[in-house]
Design a protein that fits this description.
The complex is a heterotrimer of chains A (288), B (273) and C (459). Chain A contains 14 helices and no strands. With 288 residues, chain A is mainly α. Chain A has one domain: MetI-like fold (Orthogonal Bundle), CATH 1.10.3720. The longest helix of chain A is centred in the N-terminal third of the chain and has 32 residues. The mean pLDDT of chain A is 86. With 273 residues, chain B is mainly alpha-helical. Chain B has two domains: 47 residues, no CATH class; 201 residues, MetI-like fold (Orthogonal Bundle), CATH 1.10.3720. Helix content of chain B is 70%, strand content 0%. Chain B contains twelve helices and no strands. In chain B, helix 4 packs antiparallel against helix 9 and helix 7 crosses helix 9. The longest helix of chain B is centred in the N-terminal third of the chain and has 32 residues. Chain C has two domains: 160 residues, D-Maltodextrin-Binding Protein, domain 2; 221 residues, D-Maltodextrin-Binding Protein, domain 2, CATH 3.40.190.10. In chain C, the strands form five sheets. Chain C has a five-stranded mixed beta sheet. In chain C, a hairpin with a 2-residue loop joins strand 9 and strand 10. In chain C, helix 10 packs across helix 19 and helix 19 runs antiparallel to helix 20. The longest helix of chain C is centred in the N-terminal third of the chain and has 21 residues. Chain C is globular, with a radius of gyration of 24 Å. The N terminus of chain C is likely disordered. Classes of the chains: A mainly alpha (288), B mainly alpha (273), C alpha/beta (459). Chains A and B meet through helix 1, helix 4, helix 5, helix 6 and helix 9 of A and helix 1, helix 2, helix 4, helix 5 and helix 6 of B. Chain B: Its main location: membrane. Chain B: This is Multiple sugar transport system permease protein. Chain B: It is a multi-pass membrane protein. Chain B: Keywords: Cell membrane, Membrane, Sugar transport, Transmembrane, Transmembrane helix, Transport. Chain B: Belongs to the binding-protein-dependent transport system permease family.
């Protein structure tokens, strides 16, 4: 196992700085946040002066809060539509298609996809306002219906398309490298056997990249579930129709100042993430 | 060249063109609005002018904020990349009980800390550590939030570096440090470079932490400044925003181009164990 | 959060915890004789960005002037200015975090509506407790109604920075086309609806813009629900209770239904993220007939030279009228007309090291000279009567607000629960705009209100 000859002590020394930083700046505030989740803590007002421990009241209130259940549903839709399906499929499709094209074309497409990934979120929000806004928006112009206010009339669809645009690069990168690990001889055999593209992917490629698919799906699901960018585009509106959990938490914490309640919802979001991770671990173990 | 082949070929390129258009169209705003005399939230052929550029350069904090962003993000990114690479390597090579569980827990906790709900703990903690108004302290908080994901991705990557390489190096008497520096890192370089860019991009866009932790407007990064660009009436100042967005985007694009050319921008680099 | 927890956990982490802010000295004249002092002023203003004029005034006029004055007295004063330019909620969070951790600036600019919740949290204290003697000849220049903005539960906490008033703005050109009078003053809600019905005949014109929905945030409450509600005679907070799904509230929602269900308003506009900006744009393009707004709209939106949505012919094209009660005499206090007002307040941080100097600085900020200078040649309703008399003279609209609107205006209840109530009210209007009946929306509102503030506090 210890091929590098690290030894446990040296390995610990390698891990320690990262763990220290994580311990101080991540684990500690995260646990504290979870503690706040069982109090009625507020930023201002009487409860700010004397916060009380209220136990699981916040969690129970959240579960009963129609806004919260609405958010959970929207978040699930957002993760499923834009990450699990959207980014995964488009990312794999791009990686698959671009194997065979000219390097110059390949670099151009990859460059564009990556550009949409690395541009800062605030800038990206403006870019998409310019695409989706009423009267002057690019999409309305292209489709000849400038009167459509996309972000108002189709908020979740807009957000899902936006997030596919925003996040596909990661999946594309991961699948490109994964595909490079598929032995070319097997692809050749499949081609000679007259397998269709879909059959090749399913029977030859997929078994090789299964681990990558799982890692990729886990990471993009977690990132999407915690993504705050929707706030910049729709602020959760209209009428909570695009209020995914991070947006709801933000609004509860900052706009209503209800930090206890917001922290309790963070805890629930964490549990949701945990479920995603457990499903992933299970699938991964089945592979091994 | 059968007709079917032609149709498939054409279909293929149409598909590629559609995908390119999907990714390219939103970005056109960054090319047109900064140079339009009446920039708006929409795409149109600009009425060319450089007035907006002048206005942006005249802004008292626009350029300093970009420098601040660079300082902040370079610290956060270097810390993240170096610590994550070390940790990922050790975790990949040495079996520590509960290793996977630990990684998952950290990955999950990172989602709590990057959320808004954690702002009070982080603020109070930084205050007591005397790190309010410190670029370095803010960078460390940002790095702390990014480390789990960085370790997670890099560990996958280190796992793929064949152990036989290290074993041979050890046979020739290389120390573990040398193995890491001269054998593993060169092979893992595209992955490390990718994490570097990923971390930089994430830190570059972070608004809430620098806003709360850095009080002096002259020390705040571009992500915070971009949200202050309103005119007297409280509406978005579209004279400055497009140009500033463009300036704000350039460093990450340049970094990506540089890293991509120099180290490659790939996961797993195609090495098979 | 208890501090002991903090310390304990920090110690576990193996960290040395720094000292907790400054030790709290109770006496109000600590350091009163200091020959050298530093004060920090915090404002949501930044040069080149949000509220740039205020930032430049502080940087280029106030600070040099005040330092000079102190120097003449043989005192070395350093004034630091912490600029912000963020959204109001972000700024409020920052101020609250500062104050609760014992830090922050010495003089802090806040929205008057935050005063109560900060006071309830003990984050700010009555001015007299902080600085001792609060005698000042400037008080008599500030009208009582405006002073109320800086007060909470009968105690004075800070000095207001000016105020505003809400009216109905209307487009005289569209009114002429629709055969409506150029000098319009509705006497009740029905008059407004009747005018809207006539404006509806004009192509491409939205007759009435009454802010609704959650996307507009506080603008919905302040320029929509509250002035209308005041017109039913029942304030939103009365006798220690928040108004539930009362008949009055249903009337308000009924008015929304008549406007947005009856084709007199544009429902989509209420839901867009930038709907309010867009409504300004549409008004300036002569596509909105009547719009309820504060005098800010006149000063900064349709202002012919620097406005966000300039109207070169503003002075002839834009008319204004008092917001009518449901019917004459039905408004709060039996009034025929109503209005709502708000404004900023400057408070002194209870933790300041130099309370007397901070108070002196605050008086300087509110001196006639400084207030006039802050306007930079424009007209605006300031906190000071003497300055208003001078600067509003040439502006009929602002004079109208000062003379006719301020005497009948009301302020929001500055309590910690207010933002939650406000959010519930916004939601109720959103529901009506989306097609729910007023009864249904009012029921949902009551349920949300009970969740937010507790059954006992809902009337």
């Amino acid at each position: 196992m210890d091929s590098a000859g690290l030894g446990v002590r040296r390995a610990a020394a390698f891990v320690a700085p990262a763990l220290l930083l994580i311990g101080v700046f991540l684990v500690f505030p995260a646990l504290w946040t979870l503690y706040i989740g069982i109090t009625n803590y507020q930023l201002t007002g009487p409860a700010a002066a004397n916060p009380r421990v209220v136990g699981l009241d916040n969690v129970l209130n959240a579960v009963r809060d129609p806004l919260f259940t609405n958010s959970v549903w929207l978040t699930a839709l957002f993760v499923l539509g834009s990450a699990v399906i959207g980014q995964n499929v488009l990312g794999f499709g791009l990686a698959w298609l671009l194997r065979t094209v000219r390097p110059s074309l390949r670099r151009t497409v990859e460059g564009l996809v990556l550009l949409s990934w690395i541009l800062p979120g605030t800038v990206v929000a403006y870019l998409w306002f310019a695409v989706l806004s009423r009267d002057t928006g690019t999409l309305g112009m292209l489709l000849g219906s400038p009167q459509t206010a996309w972000l108002v009339q189709y908020p979740m669809t807009s957000l899902i398309v936006f997030n596919v645009w925003r996040g596909t690069a990661f999946s594309m990168l991961l699948y490109t490298s994964a595909l490079a690990a598929v032995p070319p001889s097997q692809l050749e055999t499949a081609r000679l056997a007259g397998a269709s593209g879909w059959q090749t992917v399913r029977d030859v490629v997929f078994p090789h990249i299964r681990g990558h698919v799982l890692t990729n799906t886990l990471l993009i699901s977690l990132w999407t579930a915690n993504d705050f960018t929707p706030f910049l585009l729709t602020a959760g509106g209209p009428n909570h129709q695009s209020e995914v959990l991070p947006v709801l938490i933000y609004r509860q914490a900052l706009e209503s100042g209800q930090l206890g309640y917001a922290s309790a919802m963070s805890l629930l979001l964490l549990l949701g993430n945990l479920v995603i991770a457990l499903v992933y671990l299970r699938l991964l173990r089945r592979r091994a | 060249m059968s007709p079917l082949w032609m149709v498939r070929r054409i279909g293929f390129y149409v598909l590629v063109a559609v995908v390119m258009a999907f990714f390219a169209v939103p970005m056109l705003w960054l090319a047109s609005a900064p140079f339009d005399s009446r920039p708006g939230l929409g795409l149109r052929w600009p009425d060319w002018t450089l007035d907006n550029v002048t206005a942006t350069f005249d802004h008292p904090y626009a350029l300093t904020s970009l420098v601040n962003s660079l300082v902040l993000c370079v610290i956060a990114t270097v810390v993240t990349t170096v610590l994550a690479a070390l940790a990922a390597y050790a975790l990949s090579r040495v079996r520590i009980p509960g290793r996977d569980l630990l990684l998952y827990l950290l990955l999950l906790l990172s989602s709590v800390v990057t959320g808004t709900a954690a702002m009070v703990p982080i603020f109070v903690m930084m205050l007591q550590l005397g790190l309010i108004n410190s670029q370095f302290g803010t960078a460390l908080v940002i790095a702390g939030g990014m480390l789990p994901a960085a370790i997670f991705i890099l560990k996958d990557f280190m796992d793929a570096v064949p152990r036989s390489y290290e074993e041979s190096a050890r046979v020739f008497g290389a120390s573990p440090r040398q193995v890491l520096a001269h054998v593993v890192l060169p092979v893992a370089r595209p992955g490390v470079a990718t994490i570097f860019v990923w971390a930089f991009v994430n830190a570059w866009g972070n608004f809430l932490l620098p806003f709360l932790l850095l009080r002096d407007v002259g020390a705040q990064p571009a992500a915070v400044l971009l949200r202050t660009l309103y005119d007297e009436g409280g509406s978005a100042n579209l004279t400055v925003i497009p140009v500033f967005s463009l300036l704000y985007s350039i460093p990450v694009v340049v970094l990506y181009l540089f890293v991509n050319r120099r180290y490659g921008f790939r996961f797993h680099g195609g090495i098979k164990s | 959060m208890r501090r002991t927890t903090t310390f304990g956990l920090l110690a576990v982490c193996g960290l040395v915890a720094g000292c907790l802010g400054q030790p709290q000295q109770r006496e109000q004249d600590r350091n009163a004789d200091a020959t050298e002092f530093t004060l920090t002023i915090v404002a949501n203003a930044v040069a080149g960005g949000k509220n740039s004029r205020g930032a430049n005034w502080l940087r280029n006029w106030v600070i040099p002037r005040f330092t000079e004055l102190q120097k003449a007295k043989g005192v070395t004063a350093t004034i630091e200015f912490e600029q912000n330019g963020a959204g109001d909620e972000d700024y409020k969070t920052k101020v609250a975090l500062d104050l609760k951790t014992g830090g922050g600036g010495d003089v802090v600019e806040i929205d008057g509506i935050w005063l109560g919740e900060l006071a309830q949290a003990g984050q700010i204290r009555p001015l007299a407790d902080v600085v001792g003697n609060t005698d000042w000849d400037g008080w008599e220049q500030i009208p009582d109604a405006v002073q109320g903005l800086g007060e909470f539960e009968g105690k004075r906490y800070g000095v207001p920075m000016g105020t505003d008033g809400r009216v109905l703005f209307y487009n005289k050109k569209l009114f002429a086309q629709a055969g409506l009078p150029a000098n319009w003053q509705p006497r009740g809600w029905q008059d407004v609806l009747d005018a809207g019905a006539k404006l509806k005949t004009l192509p491409g014109v939205t007759p009435i813009q009454l802010n609704a929905g959650t996307a507009m945030g506080e603008a919905t409450t302040m320029q929509g629900v509250l002035p209308v509600l005041a017109g039913t005679g029942k304030p939103v907070y009365d006798n220690g209770k928040w108004q539930g799904d009362s008949a009055e509230l249903k009337d308000v929602l009924g008015l929304y239904e008549k406007i947005y269900g009856g084709g007199l308003g544009d429902p989509v506009l209420q839901q867009e993220a930038k709907g309010r900006d867009r409504s300004f744009q549409l008004f300036s393009e002569n596509r909105i007939g009547v719009l309820l707004e504060g005098d800010y709209f006149w000063r900064s939106v349709v202002e012919p030279r620097n406005g966000v949505a300039k109207m070169p012919d503003r002075d002839t094209a834009v008319g204004w009228a008092l917001v009518p009660a449901r019917q004459p005499g039905a408004g709060v206090g039996g009034q025929d007309f109503v209005s709502m007002s708000g404004g900023g307040v400057r408070v002194i941080n209870p933790n300041t090291r130099y309370p007397r100097q901070a108070w002196e600085f605050l008086r300087f900020l509110n001196s006639a000279e400084a207030v006039k200078e802050s306007l930079a040649g424009t007209a605006q309703l300031t906190q000071r009567q003497d300055v208003n008399d001078e600067v509003l003279e040439g502006d009929p609209m602002l004079t109208f607000v000062a003379e006719k609107v301020l005497p009948i205006t009301r302020y929001r209840p500055g309590l910690a629960d207010y933002p939650k109530v406000s959010a519930a009210l916004q939601q109720a209007t959103a529901d009506v705009v989306a097609g729910k009946s007023p009864d249904e929306a009012a029921r949902a509102y009551r349920a949300a209100l009970v969740r937010a503030v507790g059954e006992d506090n809902v009337g």
